Amino acid sequence: MDKTRNWYQQGVAEVLEALQTTSGGLSDQEVRARQQQHGLNCLPEPQRQRPLTRFLLQFHNILIYVLLGAAAITLALGHWLDTSVILAVVLLNAAIGYLQEGKAARAIAAIRHMLAPQASVIRDGRRQSVAGDQLVPGDLVLLEAGDRVPADLRLVTAHSLQIQEAILTGESIAVEKAVEPVAGESSLAERRCMAFSGTTVTSGQGRGVVVATGLATEVGRISGMLTQVETLQTPLLEQMSALARWLTLLIVVVAGLILVYGVFVQQQPFRELFMAVVGLSVAAIPEGLPAVLTITLAVGVQAMARRHAIVRRLPAIETIGSVSVICTDKTGTLTRNEMSVVTVIAGQQHFGVEGEGYAPNGELTLDGQVVAVEQMPAAVRELIRSGALCNDAELSKRETGWQVQGDPMEGALLTLAGKAALYPDDLRRHWRRTDVIPFDTDNRFMATLNHDHEGHGMIYLKGAPEALLELCSGQLDGAGDTVPLDSAFWRQQADRIARQGQRVLAFACQPVPEHKVVLDSADLASGMAFIGLVGLIDPPRQEAIAAIAECLGAGIEVKMITGDHVATASAIGHQIGLPERAPPLTGAELERLGDAELAVKALDTNVFARTSPEHKLRLVKALQAQGRIVAMTGDGVNDAPALRRADIGIAMGGKGTEAAKEVSDLVLADDNFASIVAAVREGRTVRDNLCKVIGWTLPTNSGEASAIIVALLSGVALPVTPIQILWINLITAVSLGVALAFEPTEASTMLRHPRPRNDRLLSGALVWQILVVSALFLSGVFGIYFYAISAEYSVELARTLAMNTLVVMEIFYLFFIRNMQNTVLTWRMIRGTPIVWMAVLGVTAGQFAITYLPWAQRIFDTRPVGLREGLLVVAIGVVLLVVLELEKQVRLRLFDANATGGGY
Ligand code: ATP
Questions:
Q1: DSSP secondary structure string for all residues of 423-462
Q2: Which of 495, 524, 564 to mutate to test the pocket of ligand 1 (most atoms within 8 A of CB)?
Q3: 225 or 397, which is more confident?
Q4: For residue 406, how far is its CA from the centre of ligand 1 (angstroms)?
Q5: How confident is the model at residue 834 (pLDDT cuts 50, 70, 90)?
Q6: How far apart are the CA of 637 and the centre of ligand 1, in A?
Q7: Rounded (10°) angle between helices 834-852 and 734-741
Q8: Which family does it belong to (predicted)?
Q9: Is 207 in the pocket of ligand 1 (CB under 6 A)?
Q10: CATH topology of domain 238-305+688-894
Q11: Which uninterrupted H or E stretch holds 370?
């Protein structure tokens, strides 16, 4: 195939011939052959950083520079042992950072993979959904509003097709597409008969033949600019890195001042003092914190993905746990989106429909009696025919049973046709479609123009009953003749079936002359005859019912926002357990309300029916004006503004359009409401764990550092030597802190109310915690040290005890932090998780080693500890836990009467 061909200058027939394609698309065999020749339709993966570069980048951090500086000076002073411990801290830290960053990057890459776009194609004469990268030149691709164009296409048909091509042309206004060739050389923007890969369909429908894939596409040629690498970066991480930088600076300044004070005022020997100050700096710098926070977030991203919630914009992971209102679609999210027609009303008669699923087996019944096709009134047959023709879905039998490609509701209409022995394939062959007005959520109808072989033309219309009754002036009677419309009767019937929770769809038709081949909305303004109604059931998802109950328990409100009939919406609302504090609000009523009124009403109302996408945007704003943190779901291209505006925009992975996914923060792989709630739960867990990591790291670092500062300033001997403090940092910071990143969800996580907007992680409460813990650490360390000295133990043994006490207190403090959200000590909390125990066991083994192994004793200048003293050390840890717990109880009672947790 000639790559340099100007496809836009050629007519449709010429292009199809050149690409050897027919209207039935390529055969599977041909597709495979072309895939061999052209490769996959994808752009090359962005260049990853080389492993060595990634490893070296771990050292590019002011915290590490300070540590490396300290290592260099200790080496110059001949303290090679201290140098090696500092270097070990730095290396271990870099190794953990490197490994975890790799894991985070892989997690994100895997998630991107899950978001790979799909394309609707016609192959072997059938509509199919395939992965976008499987397309080959010559494939016939179907386009609909919201789709991302999957390859460069020469359009074959276009019905009101508009495409936004900003990524190629910079022009944000959508371009109206056509099929006529464009003469002469022209710019990309002028090639109206082309649809380019990566651009977005904003409205209409079309079909195009693939002329270029992968790197051969227009976007492929400029792909350099699209290949940026994404890293795990969120506001909190930036805030924490900034904090860590400031802390480092502060520590260096304080250390410098202490050095000057010690040498000049206290006249202490420089060398010793310097080593103490190095110990102080290493103890105080939270070198492990950034890595552990990244791990915590990466663990959260993965946990959400396991629960079918894919985080697209990483900062969202911090917000999702704070969501206080979830606004959700109904169809497919709360319900299963497995539709079946159960009621047909036409020709003044009310039929039931038997059978389950999409299999076209079952009968139509009238008053419980099966009705044969021939006995059905003409109006019923006309209704079924219009349902099959005004329809873009395909029904096919697979090994797993009957399946629908396209809209499940339309699939159900095909099943209905099959049950009535009016086979859709035959109908469609006989009544060819000449034009279409695609469904859109504002009009709530879809219309097609069909012609039979004899040239008779017919407009078929299907949509919401109210929308169709506006357009119709007559109706079909049982015999299929047009009589004046009885609007009140139909409204009453529609209401009746909607109240049973059925989704109602109406049908209308109108014959037109043979020569009429273009359909526009003016054609629907007169002469349409109403045929009848169908009622479809779409059962609620069982898991959605449980998830709603969970939300209510967690203080999260749920609002159902649907395009469906108000009575249907209300009935489904009941079935899934949405509390009804105020009557449902319809889109029309919502439009009459001012912003202020809406803000008030939106709080109490839980069901919004017959809404359009613009209403969603207003609702998000109204709820945000009331201080709520809003999650909003959406699937269509018109939902994009609301998704963007919401604090958490959630797109449907299955039925959602690419346009909706692109602006969303979260994509639900299974379109399921329960997955949103699972994501909120994981979001809360991540936030709790971030709190725990920070709440453990900063106070313990400050506790260690203040022990040294107090000793230096007061001129007493150091209770812990510099090399011992380096050791503590080496083994505890990287093992205990990391354990907190993997903490599971607490039992009370979904029983707490959502956190308010702007609730900061670095709060006054954290500063208080740092002060309290530092004071307790000081008392513990000095307490045991002076006890040992007064008992006339050697200074070395006193120091060994003090060092072990410090580590034991860190371990007990870890258990306290794990329990931040519960008010009482529980067995579950004491029992801990395997990861916590592994960390604790590792640290304990390390402490035994340096206390009892002779060679370690020589390096660290430690002495063996007796059983009695050993128990005393552990007892100090227990006391620390009890004191902290008491302090928390008092603080909760005094300041925070209605909070259930003691988090920051
Ligand atoms: P949600 O997914 O938000 O719960 P919905 O899917 O019920 O909403 P829409 O898709 O906006 O809402 O549909 C609104 C109404 O439009 C439906 O109740 C139905 O009457 C009509 N409708 C939906 N899809 C089609 C279609 N393909 N053709 C004709 N009419 C349709």
A1: -HHHHHHHSEEEEEE---TTT-EEEEEEE-TT--EEEEEE
A2: 564
A3: 397
A4: 13
A5: confident
A6: 14
A7: 170
A8: Belongs to the cation transport ATPase (P-type) (TC 3.A.3) family. Type IIA subfamily.
A9: no
A10: Calcium-transporting ATPase, transmembrane domain (1.20.1110)
A11: strand 369-371
CA distance 121 to 50: 38
Inter-residue contact 404 to 395 (CB < 8 Å): yes
Mapping DSSP to helix (H, G, I), strand (E, B) and coil, where does residue 732 land? helix
CATH for 340-537 (3.40.50.2300, 3.30.1050.10, 3.40.1110.10, 3.90.550.10): 3.40.1110.10
Q: What are phi and psi of 634, to 5 degrees?
A: -170, 160
- What value does the mean pLDDT take over residues 378-385? 94
- Please check the confidence at residue 821 and state whether its pLDDT lies above 80: no
Residue 239 near ligand 1, beta carbon < 6 Å: no
Burial 491-507 (b: 16+ CB within 10 A, else e): eebbebbbeebbbbbbb
Instruction: State the Cα angle at 418 between 414 and 423, rounded to 5°.
Output: 90
Which residues sit opposite 517 in a β-bridge?
A: none
CA distance linking residue 705 with residue 718, whole number of Å = 12
Instruction: Specify the range with the lowest mean pLDDT, choosing from 77-91, 389-403, 523-537.
Output: 77-91
Token pair 């072997």: residue: 124
Predicted confidence (pLDDT) at residue 415 exceeds the cutoff of 90: yes
The string of pLDDT tens digits covering residues 847-871 is 999 999 999 898 889 999 999 999 9
Token pair in block for residue 146: 């919201």
Amino acid at 459: I
Residue ranges of the chain assigned to CATH 2.70.150.10: 7-42+116-222
For residues 687-710, give the mean pLDDT.
89
- pLDDT of residue 111 exceeding 80, the answer is no
Portions of the chain given CATH number 3.40.50.1000: 309-313+320-334+541-671
Place of tokens 């039992």: 747
Where exactly does CATH 1.20.1110.10 map onto the chain?
Answer: 238-305+688-894
Whether 897 shows a pLDDT value over 50: the answer reads no
**CA gap 434, 390 in Å, rounded:** 11
Identity of the residue numbered 471: L
pLDDT at 746: 82
- Is 309-313+320-334+541-671 a CATH 3.40.50.620 domain? no
Q: Could you report the per-residue pLDDT of 625-666, keeping only the tens digit for each?
A: 998 999 999 988 888 889 999 999 999 988 888 888 888 999
Q: Is 444 in the pocket of ligand 1 (CB under 6 A)?
A: yes
Give the amino acid at 276. Answer: A
Between helices 80-114 and 734-741, what is the axis angle to 10°? 20
Number of alpha carbons in the 13 Å side-chain half-sphere of residue 743? 34
**Mean pLDDT confidence for 323-328:** 96
**Shortest-distance Cα residue to atom 12 of ligand 1:** 563
Q: How far is the CA of 569 from the centre of ligand 1 (A)?
A: 12
Q: For residue 51, which amino acid is it?
A: P
Query: Ligand 1 center to residue 507 CA distance, Å?
Result: 14
What's the pLDDT at 228?
Answer: 44
Rg (CA), the chain: 35
Strands 369-371 and 364-366: antiparallel
Task: Indicate the average pLDDT of the chain.
Answer: 87
Which residue intervals of the chain bear CATH 3.40.1110.10?
340-537
Sign of CA dihedral 654, 657, 659, 665: negative
Distance CA(506)–CA(457), nearest Å, equals 20
- Using DSSP's 3-state secondary structure scheme, residue 609 falls into strand
Identify the pLDDT of residue 518: 85
Cβ of residue 329 lying under 6 Å from some atom of ligand 1? yes
Q: What residues are labeled active site?
A: 329
Q: Is 503 in the pocket of ligand 1 (CB under 6 A)?
A: yes
Tell whether ligand 1 has an atom less than 6 A from the beta carbon of residue 443: no
What CATH fold (topology level) applies to the domain 7-42+116-222? 2.70.150
